[in-house]
Amino acid sequence: MKVWRHHAVLCLFLAGCAALAARVVYLALLDKDFLQDQGDARSVREVVIPSRRGVIYDRLDEPLAISTPVVAVWSDPSQRRLSRAEIDRLGPLLGRDAEQLEDHLNRHADKAFVYLKRRLSWTAAERVRALRIEGLHFSEEYRRYYIGAETAAHVVGVTNIDDRGLEGVELAFDDLLSGEHGRKVVLKDRLGATIRDLEYIAAPRLGQDIALSIDLRLQYFAYRELKDAVAGHQAASGSIVILDARTGEILALVNSPSYNPNESLELGFAGMRNRAVTDSYEPGSTIKPFAVLAALETGEYQPDTVVDTAPGYWAVRRKLIEDPVNYGELTLAGIVRKSSQVGISKVALDLPERAVFEVLQRAGIGDYIGSGLPGEAIGTFDDSGLRSEVVRATLAYGYGLSVSPLQLAQAYLPIANDGVRLPLSVIKLRQPPQGERVFAASMTRQLLSMMEGVTERTGTAPGAQLAGYRVAGKTGTARLVSDGGYTDQRHVALFAGVVPLTAPRIVMVVVINQPGGPQISGGAVAAPIFARVAERALRLLGVAPDAQHLIAAVDGTGPSGGRVP
Question: Is 285 annotated in the active site?
């Protein structure tokens, strides 16, 4: 009886072993595909290989925007819910409030993908991984870092959290900068960490690098001066545009207020508007040189042609045009130097009906600039009212049209470039563009010589003088419209300048919007800013002086306040 039991147990054991062996053979050979699919579904993933966004450089190859690798932390609430204890441990490492994080997960409990934190540094991500919380996943991504910060923000722009361009060059050239993501198949463990790469499906295509025309050194100095001036004059805003007179490249473009693109987008940016490009103003007396140019083109006017402006005012139909004082008889050059409204109006009404309009049109006023910066304003400029003498008179001193600071700077380029109009570019050029002649070189040189008088002691902008350099420029002080009419309480102060006069290198426009202090004119507010920025710009660009003597103010000091030797 005992022998029978022994054999029975042995047979059952052998049968069980045979069954197990048969099952192993079945699973390994006959049901292999099913098991492999089930295992892969739990551990094999296709993931994105993020593409690095292209670097943005300035004209001297200084980086302005670079991408640094960061980590995104996410979970799948539909597969596993994090406990409150895990959330309490996780929250501080992610920089998030535990209760808000728990609420965020509860609101997306039915989702298969929920971000817990984007743009986490690698160091912080390693601390999160060390918690070994099941259900957390980590993805590589990039974060943009802006070296110029608020100094170059309006040119370079900013990207959103998904690394797509929102403003500036980042938006305008987003397709070139962004590249294309790659894909690969990886094996992950139960905690979501990658064990090894299994297959590369597509390699990422890196974004293209871009070299801008701006010089970060000029950008920094122009922004510092502008920011101080806006605060010092209690102004609403301000803009400076600096162009290369030989190529049309934008060497600097700054606005105040500005913003820091390195800060979180969630904070919002009050200063994101690129006012130099998007905002239009009536340019005031900065338009007078173009009216003078129209007069020179007729052949009936010369720099020494005399115009009687007495008694200091002049009625055109129902409009009274006034000068601050009675200048009496002024030459055409004197009209520019003193910025006489009466004088320029009399000249304009003595010209053919479309003369001033067509000169402005050839200079580029009213045209789309096409610089590459988003949101370019075209302004207001048309010929519908030219039959009216009042319209022609006011057009000659900058009312009845509007331009952006960038447009005004472009219009001054032909004056600085021997009558050749150039396209503007925010991208560094390998060679100067082919320009279009719009004015005779001899006439623009005559005009520049007349505009030099503006910066002399008897002109409207002695504060624009530079030691060792001849400066040509024009002031503007335009009243703003309020409650359906012009007001004497709100103004825009402007200065447009060209330096050095002998061989122009830069064109600069300074606009201070609504200065609130005792000084409101372009000569008192904008011209000194031009002098300080131009002085540094010429030094950095290595431009040799073109004057035989050092120009100093009446008290013997230079534009920066230091005594001229």
Answer: yes
pTM metric for this prediction: 0.85
Write down the residue that tokens 């001193």 correspond to: 397
Q: Tally Cβ neighbours within 10 Å of residue 264.
A: 8
Strands 136-146 and 114-120: unpaired
- Cα torsion 189, 191, 194, 196 to 10°: value is -20
Give the SS3 label for residue 502.
Answer: coil
CA neighbor of 506 nearest in space, from 477, 540, 550: 540
* Torsion angle of C-alpha atoms 480, 483, 484, 487, degrees rounded to 10: -40
Q: Which residue is it, tokens 């309009």? A: 357
Give dist(CA 205, CA 40) in Å, integer.
28
Q: Which residues contact 326 (CB under 8 A, 6 or more apart)?
A: 309, 310, 311, 312
Catalytic residue among 51, 256, 258, 285: 285
Contact 559, 547 (CB under 8 A): no
Nearest to 90 by CA among 145, 141, 159, 137: 137
Minimum mean pLDDT among 227-231, 465-469, 552-556: which range? Answer: 552-556
d(CA 542, CA 17): 92
Cα distance from N-terminal residue to C-terminal residue, the chain: 128
pLDDT digits (tens, 9 = 90+) for 439-482: 999 999 999 999 999 999 999 999 999 999 999 999 999 999 87
State both tokens at 75.
């979970």
Nearest to 508 by CA among 191, 243, 117: 243
Q: Which of 522, 519, 518, 524 is nearest to 510 (CA)?
A: 522
Output the 3-class SS for 5-37: HHHHHHHHHHHHHHHHHHHHHHHHHHCHHHHHH
Strands 313-316 and 319-322: antiparallel
Burial-class residue 98 by CB neighbours within 10 Å (0-12, 13-18, 19+).
middle
Residues sharing a CB contact under 8 Å with residue 387, sequence separation 6 or more, in sequence order: 353
CA of residue 384 relative to chain centroid, distance: 34
